[in-house]
Amino acid sequence: MSSSAQARPLEGCKVVEACSYISGPFCAQMLADLGAEVIKVEPPAGDPYRNFGHSRDGVGTVWTNSNRGKRSVALDLKLPADLAHFRSLVQDADLYIENWRPHVSASLGLSFEQLGETNTRLVQLTITGYGPDGELAKEPAFDALIQGRTGLLSYEAAGGVPRATNSFLADKVAAIFAAQMALAGLRERDRSGKPVHIETSMLDMLSYFNFPDMFHNQTWLDDEAPCTLAPQPVLATRDGYMVLSPVSGKQLSRTLEALGHPEWKAELKGIADRKQMTHTFFERIAEPLRDRTTAEWLARFREMDVPAGPVSEPADHLRDPQVQHNELYSELETGAGKLRAIRYPARINGQLLKPMRPAPGLGEGNAELLGR
Q1: Partner of 66 for a Cys bridge, out of 25, 282, 328, 361, CB 3.0 to 4.6 A?
Q2: Does residue 20 have a pLDDT over 80?
Q3: Does residue 265 belong to any structural domain of this protein?
Q4: SS (H, E, C) 47-91
C-alpha cells in the first residue's frame, strides 16, 4: 500500500503544461499523480488563477488543489530569449498541453506543425472552450457558460428555474477527458512513431458527458416524448437530510416495509407512468421519514438492503469511516503550513498513489530547468 514502493505508471514521461484556470492544470495534475514530470509554464506575474478565491499567503486554494506535484517555470513568451527557453522545454517533452484561445500558439511559433518538426515524438493536446474554429472559437469560455450552452442548467432546473452547480463541473469533467485523451495520444504516438495533435473543447467534452441520460428522450430522431427521468429528491429526516435510491421493484417494496407502510404497494403498482409512480413514491415516504434521525434510518435501510445514504457536509465527508479507510487524504508540508491533499483515485497492483509534493511556487524551477 506504500505510495513509493513501486514506480508510477507515467514515470519517465515529460509533460509541459501552458494552461490556466482548471481544465488544463487539473488534467496535468492527474498525470503528475500518475508519475509524469510536469513542468508548468507561467507568465512572470504567475498563472492569473493563482489569486482566485479563498487563499493562503496570496495563493488560491482552488489553484493549489489543481497544480500539485508540478514544477513551475516563469517565462515571458513575448521575449525571444524566454520563447527560446520554452521551445527548449518542449524539445524533448512527450506531451505539451495548452488551453489558450485558438491561434495563440501559432502566433508564438508554437503550432503543432512548428513544434512537430523538431520533436517528432511530441503529443500536443489543445484544449479550447468551443473548438478551433466556428463562430464561437474566439469567445471566452467559462464553466457556467458551458453548462448553460450544453443544456445542463435547464436539465437541473429546480421549480422551473434553471440553476448551475456550485462545483466547477464543466472544467473538472474536461480535465478528466483531457487526461484520457493525453494517454490515448501517447499510445498513438508509440504505435505510429509520429507526432500526434489532439484538439478538444469544453463544449465537446461536457456534451459527451451529458448525453447518456440527459438526452434519453432525444436519442431517436422521431422521438417526441417529454423527459421521463424523475429527479432525485433530497429527503428530510428528524435531524437532517438523506437520499434514497431504490431502483428495482424489490427495493421499492423493502423501502415501504422499512417505513411500516407495505399497504402503499398496491397504489404504486396501479400507476402505469413510471415518472408519476416515482413522484408518488417519494411524496408518500417524505412524512414518515421525519419521524427518525438520519442515522436511525440508515441503520434500518441497511438491514433491509435498501440503497440509502446521508447528505454530508464537506467536513462530515472527511470524517466518513469509509473515506478514512480508503486513505483518500494526506497531509503535505508547505511554507504556509500543512495542507490536505487527495490522492489519485486508484490502486495499481495494490499501490496507493498518494500525493508527493504540493503545488509549486512561481518560477521555483527556473534555475534548475533553465540554468538561471
Answers
A1: 25
A2: yes
A3: yes
A4: CHHHHCCCEECCEEHHHHCCCCCCEEEECCCCCHHHHHHHHHHHH
DSSP per-residue letters across 266-282: HHHHT---HHHHHHHHH
**Residue 65 and residue 77: Cα distance in Å, rounded?**
26
Is the model's pLDDT at 2 over the cut of 60? Answer: no
Q: Nearest Cα to 36, choosing from 128, 117, 125, 169?
A: 125
Q: How do beta strands 235-236 and 347-348 pair?
A: unpaired
Containing domain of residue 76, as a range?
A: 14-212+348-370
- Which candidate, 21, 51, 16, places its Cα nearest to that of 36? 16
DSSP bridge pairs for 340: 331
Global pTM? 0.93
How many Å apart are CA 147 and CA 162, to the nearest integer? 11
Is residue 267 assigned to a domain? yes
Residue located via cell numbers 428528524: 238
> What pLDDT, on a 0 to 100 scale, did the predictor assign at position 372?
59
**pLDDT tens-digit profile of 200-256?**
999 999 999 999 999 998 999 999 888 877 778 899 999 999 999 998 999 999 999
Distance spanning both ends of the chain, measured CA to CA: 39
CA separation, residue 305 to residues 14, 18, 121, 321, 354 (Å): 48, 49, 53, 19, 33
pLDDT averaged over the chain?
94
| CA 66 – CA 114 distance, rounded (Å) | 29
Distance between CA atoms of residues 335 and 36, nearest Å:
24
- Please determine, for residue 350, whether its predicted confidence score (pLDDT) is greater than 60: yes
* Together in a domain, 125 and 208: yes
Residue 137 and residue 40 share a domain: yes
User: Taking a C-beta distance cutoff of 8 angstroms, is the pair 73, 369 a contact?
Assistant: yes
Query: What CATH number has the domain bearing residue 153?
Result: 3.40.50.10540
